[in-house]
Amino acid sequence: MTSPATAETITVGVLALQGDVREHLASLTNSGAQARAVRRVVDLDGLDGLVIPGGESTTMSILAVRDGLLEPLRAFAASGRPCFGSCAGLIFLADRVTDGRDDQQTMGGLGVTAARNAFGRQVDSFETDLSVPSLGQELFPAVFIRAPAITEVGPDVEVLAVLGDRIVAVRQGGLLATAFHPELTDDNRFHRYFVQMVAEHRRAAPETTSK
Questions:
Q1: Residue 122: pLDDT band by 50, 70, 90 thresholds?
Q2: Which of 57, 127, 165, 170 is the most exposed place for a label (fewest CB within 10 A)?
Q3: Catalytic residue list contains 83
Q4: Considering only CA atoms, which of 28, 30, 154, 36 is closest in space to residue 93?
Q5: 87 is a catalytic site residue
Q6: How far apart are CA 32 and CA 160, in angstroms?
Q7: What per-residue confidence (pLDDT) applies to 5?
Q8: pLDDT tens track for 59-85
Q9: Active-site residue, selected from the candidate residues 183, 191, 201, 207
Q10: Distance CA 100, CA 134 (A)
Q11: Is a pLDDT exceeding 70 seen at residue 32?
Q12: Among residues 181, 191, 200, 201, which one is catalytic?
């Protein structure tokens, strides 16, 4: 898969409340996008897409509420602009979360139920080669760290990858999510896939990108 060729630069933000921000920024840049950190509401202006990184989902929720970002993030996703969540980012995109804190909130939009820490604690972290047909025949080196899993999917959700009987990667329209950390590998295929999603959305609806 090659980086998308576009007449205009694709600009993708990475939510920088905490987590693997630098790694996502580097992977997006290597995939042909212009990338910048998003710390304030104003940083969402002019973005064509958004990445929600791995980290700690409850902390992400608390900081998003504290900084007044939660509703603008929800509006960003509702605008149709593509979003990509990895690990904790998957949880933050999910409409439903099991085993979360009572006050935990999500950005939502992705019609799935996510189970937090489905693969165990930090000491249970592992890497495995994963089949992801949407990325081609070559297996993807998936890094699982206190990873969630998807236990239920809505009718519009496409399952991209499974590990055993657990769903670990999905797409729903402009929303992409993985239970693992593509940003922690040298394989940029997931980021190139997402940048292509962003480019296709921008070509189809250019008037939404600067709102």
A1: confident
A2: 165
A3: no
A4: 154
A5: yes
A6: 23
A7: 42
A8: 888 899 999 999 999 999 999 999 999
A9: 183
A10: 30
A11: yes
A12: 181
